[in-house]
Amino acid sequence: MNVTTSISPVQTAAASVIFEVFTKQQQLAVKLRTSTADERITKLRRLEAAVMANKDAIYRALAADLHKPATEADLDEIMPVIGEIHHAVKHLKSWMRTKRVGTTMTMLGTQARIRYQPRGVCLIISPWNFPINLTFGPLASAIAAGNTVIIKPSELTPSCSALMAEIIRQTFDPAEIAVFEGDAAVSTALLALPFDHMFFTGSPAVGKIVMAAAAKHLSSITLELGGKSPVIVDESADLAKAAKSVMWGKFLNNGQTCVAPDYLYVHEKILSAFLEKAKAAIAKMYGDNAQTSPDYCRIVNDRHFSRVKNIL
Q: Would residue 160 show up in a list of annotated catalytic residues for this protein?
């Protein structure tokens, strides 16, 4: 197996290199337990500056991987990350403040406090549908909490993966935050390590694998998994408004969103009228031929396109 830590798209990092970085992060995580709010805010500001400095590169990467227009990139990729950072900066000092709480009768005469401490070394396995948002968003939270972080971005969006690896490499020491690109083999190597916390966004099937790996080390875990999102349109609905809202929600990111409407229950009396309104809403967003619209996002790859086509 080739040993490499190159930031080139979709390359496999050797397990020994991953372990070396993990060990360095474990050592630094101990020191970060006493990090101050100001120190963490400085790192958050550094991440914000790096994202903003690379806005044009982010636009290009998202266009290359998903044909995502700049407007969508701002709306559902860049702005949520900046908002997450600003929210953490605003509230971090109050979040970190020790809180005094009451005790039970059996502990009469004692005092109790809640003291918030970093988890330690965190793993973020991010998805392909919102590669920037769902990588740097969780990263902002991990930084705010005083942790070290290893990131495994999706290999299905190689341009975004390579860009994020480059941004992190230029902004942080790998002993603090590192990115390992690659396929499932890299994820497997990472999941074998005793992370203090794991954050995974993706399918329930892979989520079960991540959860099983976390259980082996009693690691705490956050799973953000997919689901089904029904929409009900009854006969009292404002059809134009309902159609516009549903079609926008469905076609944002070409429907590759965990909260996108998956199926509709439309009252039979208004079904025909609703369909006409829906077609009009689509035409208004993308014109008569969506394939030629610069605002129309694409399915991430041929395999997923074939899967959706077979369903239809």
A: no
Enumerate the domain spans of the chain: 15-225, 230-311
Structure tokens given for 15:
């397990």
Q: Which fold has domain 15-225?
A: Aldehyde Dehydrogenase; Chain A, domain 1 (3.40.605)
Instruction: For 276-308, give one letter per residue: b (16+ CB within 10 A) or e.
Output: ebbeebbeebbeeeeeeeeebbbbbeeebeeee
Annotated catalytic residue: which of 77, 84, 166, 224? 224
**Active-site option among 258, 268, 276, 297:** 258
Distance between CA atoms of residues 301 and 111, nearest Å: 58
Q: Model confidence over 212-245: pLDDT tens digits?
A: 999 999 999 999 998 788 999 999 999 999 999 9
* pTM, 2 dp: 0.86
Look at domain 230-311 and name its CATH class: alpha beta
3-state secondary structure of 150: strand
